Structure formats: structure tokens, C-alpha cells
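User: We ran a pulldown and think these components assemble together. Before we commit to crystallization trials, I'd like a predicted model of the whole complex to look at. Sequences follow.
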Amino acid sequence: MLQIKPVLAALKRHKAGTVLIGLQIALTLAIVCNALFLIQQKVTHLSRTTGIVESDLLTVGSEWTNASGVEVGSLVRTDLQTLRQLPGVADVGVSYGYPLRGGGWNDGVSTKPDAKQSAALAWRFFVDDHVLSVLGAKLIAGRNFRPDEIRVVDSHNLVTPAQLIITKALADKVYPNQSALGKPLYIAAATSPSTIIGIIDHLQGGSASSWSDAISDYVVLEPKLLTDKSNAYLVRAQPGQLSAITKVVRTALFKTNRMRIIPDGEGEGAGVRSFAQVREQAYKSDRGMAIIMSVICAVLLIITAAGIVGLTSFWVSQRRKQIGVRRALGATRGDILSYFLAENFLISLGGVLAGIVLALGMSLWLVMHFETQRLSLPYVLVGVLLLLLLGQAATLAPALRASRVSPVEATRST
Amino acid sequence: MFAYYFELGLRSLRRNPVLTALMVMAIGFGVAASMTTYAVFRAVSGNPLPDKSGQLFVPQIDNWGPQSRKTGGDLPESLSYTDAMALMHAHKAVRQTAIYPVGFTLVPVDPSSQPFAVNGYAAYADFFAMFDVPFQYGSGWQGVDDDNRANVVVISNELNQKIFAGANSVGRGIQLDGRDYRIAGVVADWDPRPRFYDVNNGSGFGDAPDVFMPLTRAIDLQTETLGNNNCYGTTGQAPGWDGWLHSECAWISLWVELPDANAVARYQSYLEAYAADQQHAGRFHWVPNIRLSNLMQWLDREHVVPKETTVSLVLALGFLLVCLVNTIGLLLAKFMRRASEIGVRRALGASRRQIYTQFLTEAAVVGVAGGLLGLLLTAFGVLGISLVFEPEIARLARLNVSLVGFTLLVSVAATVVAAFYPTWRAARVQPAWQLKSN
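Assistant: Here's a predicted model for the assembly, 852 residues in total across the polymer chains.
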């Protein structure tokens, strides 16, 4: 049976060391469980699905240097033809706005005209009749746009479209507990309604930033080609043909018409991006934060463990004589081992109790200053378990060494 | 004496290589994590215009009403065209400029090279004097060019290099979106970080602008804003360009130069009077609500320092704290192990002060070693920053002389501070007791 009293009595003689280990455990717990929580949030954030088939998809942004109005309509049609004739291309659509694009257009939508408070804020994607199938988004009710429904307009003269396709999430939001199919929807300042002709299962909005999390699944598709905005060609490649198409697409477009800009580079502004790149860039900072937090957690745990090993070793070497005496008086190796493990357990327990308070305080501070979410209790529990185990593991080596101290030590003078 | 203590310290550290390595690593990692995140924080939180930031102000006007703030929003961060023009024409500040981001395309004469995008700002002539813009050639355009809505531009040094191979291009022509402009000046390398006059549109750390042109001309040409266009309650907005121009959509930034507190107070009351006038005229159906922020207040309000940056700095500092607590514990173990040595030294006449000096020197040696390790790790950290932060922010963080000095200083100072308690304990060792027990 463990003797708590002698352990406590011994700790009283090593107040400073005890407090230091306890403090270190408390601080580590506070940081580790907050960091774990943030990591989990980032990971959840970046594992959201887009609702499209992401492989074999290429986005090509091209802007005209001089064209405007109706002219853009015919130029885009020529481009689409060029792209569709490229070897390895399955289909091509043109769109202003696509999932994770990095910004775009959002507006309020409502079910009644002149509503002072709109029912929801939603992303507006302006698409042609190919986009749905190119993206691989699943239509769960109604129909896709027909070619003759696509209007060529500029962004200052947006006529209210007769038809709309919306996501299921938005449909459930504006028309809860009923089918939204065939119902009217007013976009932004529209005075006349558009009819919802189709509902898609899921489609993510144009940004991965946390400001847009609330509207991430609310998307309205309008059958339009905007002549004054940077449209993107969405190219669906046949399996395995993506890299071949990526190599030739720029040259092919410039051969058709030189008066355009397709930005170079690899970053968010680049003209030609595979959807894998789009996703990677959209979640760059989320992933980076998760990595940095994991590294900090790992190094922190290692350092705390090292600190425990260091101080416990010191205590063991300080008490060799006492250990010898105990052994000589009949204590088994197991008794010595469990003594040091119990000592560490007591200190760790004190440390984690203080750490829980610190962790909650730190979480509260983060919530107040950075609008993060409140730390949930399971993370604290995981952190507590982690640190108690870590403490025991770190004590094991010095404690084993202590248990091997020979009873002869009792007779030595130092 | 110091050299002697230094040697003693080295010898003692060599005696327990594992313990020493632990301390050096703890300090090294702690300092490196803090310094890497601090490098980023310093890069984004600086004052872009230290000499003038107290005299530059941004007015905000509530043209949407309290209803728009129900969901927790704030005053619109830009002005509507109507308000921006009213404030420009009133001319109540020493200098003032409305600004919005614009983009053009430039088609090179050489048919083998591809057209490229030229981005910049539409502004007023005062822009250049207000923000102390340095010129390589020529100067900004004149106020009269604003009034005449002249086809004139100021281009960047970089664009000048690209098209005119760096020659003095003042007075020459340049074609943007197929229209001819006369070049009034070439800006020398100038890109304040953050780009304070446009933080409401981008991160404030993007690529430097290539071109500036009179805002009056840009409006005539119906040049779209490349920045945010925020509309609220657009019901009733007329279609087309003019409809948008006269809507309550907010998309223009306004900056005013107010040299002293009196001027600030006068401008404040002018803004209040303006908003009250709008209320009387029936445009605003609410109590006038305006705000005037100076440059640094504005950067703060616009959250120019990204959330990630501050959170990681806080975590890294917490990390350093743990490392320090760890070091205190290890130093305590190390010093107290030598109680008998201290007893002998004290018995032979060493004063407490001398014990202090000896042990603090030993700690400083650990600090220097930890600092060197920390420096190495910081260098790796700065290289790896682009993993975590946006590339435009990551490339601002550099390992320069001041960061190197600061890293070493922090690690030595932190270790010496951490050593105070263990040293105090060491100095309190009773010589008699130690000698007796031996």
C-alpha cells in the first residue's frame, strides 16, 4: 500500500522543486489543451467538402484586355470551343465564382420583395449550362439551366434571372420544412422574383476564410455570363490527362486571341490552377497553424518531460543514502519505485489542477480577443491524462535507477 | 575575476553534459519559437509612416443606419461616392484625397510578349504630398489636372523599368486599356508596409502598386474598383454605372491631413455638421454617426495584424515561459548539487556577492549557448514561416542584425533572470553545516 504521508513530508523539504515541476505541468497543460483544441478546429475546417469532384479539374482565369459587352460573349464562346477541342478535355464550363476560389460576390437573398432584413447571405455564382456537370455537383431536385437561359450581362445591369439553382442548405434555410423547388427568391435589390428550378445537394462557397463560415454552404447559381468580371473556365479532364492539359492550355488560348491576360505564377492569383492547388492555397493558413501548433505541443511535451527527468534524477542522487537505509530496513525495489512514481503523481496532480484553471483562463482570453470558440471539456481531460502519463513515464527511468540503489549505500558517509 | 568565473562555469557545465544540453535546448527552443513569431509580428505591426502618422486621418460616416449593425457590424469602412465627393469639395482639411484601387491591362508593342495587368490607385493630386511619396523622375500631377480630369498618370519605378528600361519617361505616353496617358512622374521605390491607405481592401501586404491616376478621370472612364464594394439596402438603386455611383454602396477611402489638435477638432465638428445636414435633407433617417481615426488607430480598427500572428506570438511566449520554469528547476538541481563546494568556498572567505557573480556567470554561459542554438533555430523558423503565414506576410519577416541581437539578448537575459532564484538558494548555503556533514 502506498504511503502518502512520507511522500508529502519529503516534498515539504523540496518546496522549490515541487512548485517548479507543478508550475511547468500547469503551464504545459494550459498551452497543450488550447493548442490541441485549435488544431482540431483547423482540421475540421479544412476537411469540409466542396460538393464537387475535385480530381481532374482545372481552373483557368483569363481577362480580356480591351473587350466589353456583347463582344465578350462571343470571345468566350470561341475560347470554350478551343478548350473543348484540346485532347484529354471531357467538358468545359465558364463561371464567375467557384468553391474555394478565394473571394467572390455575396448578397442577401429573401423570399419576399423589399425585405428590410434578408433571409440569408449567400454566394452568387454566375454560371453557364455546363458548369454543374463539369464540377460534378449533384442535382437532387429540379433541372439544370438550358443553354438558351444563359444571359450575357455586365455587373451593373444585372437583370433579375428567371431561373435559379440553389444549394440544399440554402433551400432549407429560406424555406424550412417545405420544398423550395418552384418557389420564388429575391436576390439583393431585385424587385421581381426568380424561380428556384433546381436544388443541389451541396456546394461550398467562394472562400475558405473563417469570416464566411456561416454562409459557406449557401450558394445561388444564376444563368449568366458576366462581361466585366474575371471569369474562370472550369475544365474537366479525362482521367489522367490533367497535367497534359495544364501544359498546353495557356498557349492554346493565346493562339486563339492574344489580347488577354492569364496571370503567371503559382499563388492565389495565378491564372491556371488545378483544383488541388486551389484547395491547398485556400487552406494554407489553416494547415500552417495546425502544423505550428503541433510542433509547439510536441516540443513543449518533450521539454517538460526532460525537466521532470532532470529534477527527479537530482532528487534520486540527493537521497541515495536514505534509499539505502530504506532498502536495508526491508523495503523492496518495488517500494522504492512506487515511492518515486507516487511522488511524481502527487506533484502532477497538483500541477494539472492548477493547469485546468490556467487552461480555462487562457481559453477565455482567446475567446475575448480572437473570437475563437470556448475550449470544450474533453480536450482538458485528454490534456490531463496526457500530462499525468507523461509525468509517470518521465519519472520511470530515474525511479528505476533509484530502485537499484544497493542497501550498502546506507553505510557510506555521503 | 570574471574570466575565472567564466571558466568555472564552463567546467561545471561540462561535468553534467546531459543536464547542460537539456537547459541549452530548452532555452534555444523557447527563444527560437518566440523570436520567429515575433519577427512576423514586428513585420506586420509597424508604423508605416512614423513621421506623419499622427497627422493623417480617415473619416467614416454612417450612411447605412443602425439597422445595418444589428448583426454586429461597424460603421462602413469606406465612404459612398456621394459622401467622398462632398468631403473632397468641402476642402476642410489642409490636404485630402479620395482613393480607390483600379486595374488596367497593358499590351506591349512587341507582339511576341504577352499583355499584363497594371494595378494601382485612382487618387487626387494631394496623395503624393500627404504620404511623402518620393519621386525618381518628375512629380505627382497638379490639382488642376484633377479639375480638368486629365489623362495623366504617375507610374512606379518597376513599371518604368519594364517599359522604358529605367529611362526618364516623364512627358512620354503610356497606353492602358487602349487609352493614352501622359506620364507626370515616376515614383522611386515606395511601398509602405502595411499599405495603410488600402488596408480596407486587401491584407495591406500585397504587391506594390504600378500606377496612380486622377480619380476624377477614372470615374469618367467608368473604371471599376478592384477593391470591396459593400452595399446595404440597395433597394431602389438605379441600374447602370450612374445608378451605382449615386447609390449608398461604400467603396471609396478618404484620407485627410490635419496638422494639429485644433484642425482635428474643427474637422470633427465639420463631419458632424455634414452628417446632420444629410439627416435634415432626409437622406439619413438616424442620428448622425461619424468617426475620425488617425493612421495607427485605423490600422488597429482594420485588424491589420492578422489573428494568427497574435495567437502564435502568445503561444510562443507561453512556450518560452515553460522553458524558463524548466531552466529554473534544472539550474536549482545543478546548483544545489554543489552545496558542499559552495560551503568550502564560503568557508575560505568568498562573500555572498562572489557566489552570486559566479553562478550568474555560469547561467549567462548557458544563456549564450541557448541563444546561439536559438539563433540557428530562428533562422530555420523564419525560412519556414511561409508554411504558416500568407506569402506576402512571410516574406516581410527577415533575420536581420537587430533580430539577431535581440535573440541573443532575450536568451541571456531570460536565463540570468531564471538563475536568480537558484543562485539565491546557493548563496544561502550555510558553510558550517556543509562542512560538518562532510
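Chain A touches chain B through 61 residues (CB under 8 Å). That may be worth checking against your pulldown data before setting up trials.

User: Thanks, that helps.
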